[in-house]
């Protein structure tokens, strides 16, 4: 009997494997037009980036960057990692709101936000390999070689790795639904809440950990940006940075992938955006108060009359206070365009803050300053372009903005049959 089962089972397994291969080959085919302005521009950027990276990995960092012993960290760290991780903060904030606080209104955008966060960590953390002189040594914290357990970088490395795993688990139910693995989907759904709690903890730790890296550079960062409270400021700013990115990307995604969005998302999109804008308003005013306390505590008033003081005021007033007020006004009158403008201004403010801490105001006193080469800029744009291509591929195929017919995704990660209103 055992042999009979094995004999009849082999053809079934083979047929299923062939079906899976045909399915994957069909999914790999492009959907939509190929020769579009977006594809041509981003494709050219990625092609040039590939050439630059080939030079980088064959001839070294000095061949394509302006990095040196005095400036070992540049644009690839300051923007791709330090700024990119702040932009990905929307994932941990939104999962906390939906899975922990049970704010059901935001449930339709959970998956796309988690996908954005996961891809951001994969690509921006992957950008670390570009900046390491010996990229193969990135495995050292994982395999236990040269453990520096008291190092902030050691903690950040493990936080990154574990958080990416947590976000993959959070998103994995969508992958199982796409592949038609309903039984596996139920097991993965049951793991969602635990992954969310674990991921929120890790995210808070590494958001502050990135700020803690710069606590050791007190003598190198301009006093207007250095503070022993940098870790706290990084965590608080990651909340409104992440939600502003959700508003910005979500508004574009809602238009570009309107054919993939569920009816519930179409019906509640504006309410979701206004709700997120209200949260951003409150958090940004808290951030402003914290910045004021740090400014007074550090007795930084003497620097305001300098050029660096004007640059500091531009960041704080122009790209924190102004978007905070604009958010507040737009929420009151439900002005969607104003909310989107406020989101863009807030994101620019985060870019300025992170780059000021890590690049612009770093060694501000030096006679020769670091300025990224055009090749560094192109590679950064190439990383972003590649992320957008993967994001588009996933959204066009997996149930990210819609739901599987006949099933409803519950906030606890489980599935239940959809019941008609009748």
Question: In words, what does this structure look like?
Answer:
- There is one protein chain.
- With 422 residues, the chain is an all-alpha fold.
- The chain has a single domain (34-399), classed as Up-down Bundle (Formate dehydrogenase/DMSO reductase fold).
- It has helices at residues 2-28, 37-59, 75-87, 90-100, 110-126, 128-131, 140-143, 152-179, 182-190, 192-212, 230-256, 263-297, 307-333, 336-360, 374-395, and strands at residues 407-409, 415-417.
- A two-stranded antiparallel ribbon has the order 1-2.
- β1 (407-409) and β2 (415-417) form a beta hairpin.
- It starts with a helix and ends in a 5-residue tail after the last strand.
- The model is unreliable at 1-7 and 410-422 (pLDDT under 50).
How are the elements arranged and paired?
Blueprint: H1 2-28, H2 37-59, H3 75-87, H4 90-100, H5 110-126, H6 128-131, H7 140-143, H8 152-179, H9 182-190, H10 192-212, H11 230-256, H12 263-297, H13 307-333, H14 336-360, H15 374-395, E1 407-409, E2 415-417
Helix pairs in contact: 2-15, 3-5, 3-14, 3-15, 4-5, 4-10, 4-11, 5-8, 5-15, 8-9, 8-10, 10-11, 11-12, 11-14, 12-13, 13-14
Structural class: mainly alpha
What is the oligomer described by this structure? Answer: single chain
- The sequence of SSEs as H and E is HHHHHHHHHHHHHHHEE
Q: Write out the CATH superfamily name.
A: Formate dehydrogenase/DMSO reductase domain
Summarize the main sheet.
2 strands, antiparallel
**Main sheet: strand order:** 1-2
Shape: globular
Write down the CATH class: Mainly Alpha
Helix content: 55-70%
What is the CA–CA distance across the termini? Answer: 49 Å
């Amino acid at each position: 009997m055992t042999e009979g089962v094995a004999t009849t089972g082999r053809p079934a397994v083979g047929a299923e494997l062939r079906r899976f291969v045909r399915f994957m080959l069909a999914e790999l085919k492009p959907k939509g037009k190929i020769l579009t302005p977006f594809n041509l521009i981003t494709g050219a950027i990625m092609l040039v980036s590939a050439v630059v990276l080939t030079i980088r990995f064959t001839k070294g960092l000095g061949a394509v960057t302006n990095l040196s012993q005095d400036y070992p960290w540049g644009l690839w760290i300051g923007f791709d990692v330090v700024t990119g991780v702040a932009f990905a903060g929307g994932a941990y904030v939104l999962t906390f709101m939906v899975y922990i606080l049970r704010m059901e209104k935001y449930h339709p955008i959970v998956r796309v936000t988690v996908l954005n966060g996961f891809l951001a960590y994969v690509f921006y953390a992957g950008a670390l390999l570009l900046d390491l002189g010996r990229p193969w040594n990135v495995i050292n914290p994982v395999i236990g070689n040269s453990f520096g357990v008291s190092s902030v970088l050691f903690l950040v490395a493990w936080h990154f790795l574990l958080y990416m795993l947590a976000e993959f688990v959070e998103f994995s139910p969508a992958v199982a639904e796409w592949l038609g693995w309903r039984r596996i989907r139920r097991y993965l759904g049951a793991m969602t809440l635990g992954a969310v709690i674990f991921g929120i903890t890790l995210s808070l730790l590494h958001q502050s950990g990135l700020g803690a890296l710069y606590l050791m550079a007190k003598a190198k960062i301009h006093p207007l940006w250095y503070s022993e409270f940098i870790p706290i400021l990084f965590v608080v700013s990651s909340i409104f940075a992440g939600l502003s990115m959700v508003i910005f990307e979500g508004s574009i995604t809602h238009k570009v992938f309107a054919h993939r969005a569920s009816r519930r998302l179409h019906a509640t999109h504006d309410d979701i955006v206004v709700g997120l804008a209200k949260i951003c308003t409150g958090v940004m005013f808290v951030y402003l108060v914290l910045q004021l306390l740090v400014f007074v505590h550090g007795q930084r008033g003497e620097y305001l009359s300098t050029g660096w003081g004007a640059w500091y005021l531009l960041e704080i007033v122009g790209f924190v206070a102004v978007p905070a007020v604009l958010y507040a006004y737009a929420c009151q009158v439900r002005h969607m365009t104003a909310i989107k403008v406020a989101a863009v201004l807030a994101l620019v403010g985060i870019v300025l803050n992170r780059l000021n801490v890590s690049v612009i105001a770093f060694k501000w006193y030096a006679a020769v300053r670091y300025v990224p080469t055009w090749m560094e800029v192109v590679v950064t744009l190439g990383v972003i372009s590649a992320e957008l291509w993967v994001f588009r591929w996933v959204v066009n195929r997996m149930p990210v903005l819609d739901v599987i017919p006949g099933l409803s995704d519950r906030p606890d990660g489980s599935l239940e049959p959809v019941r008609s209103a009748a």
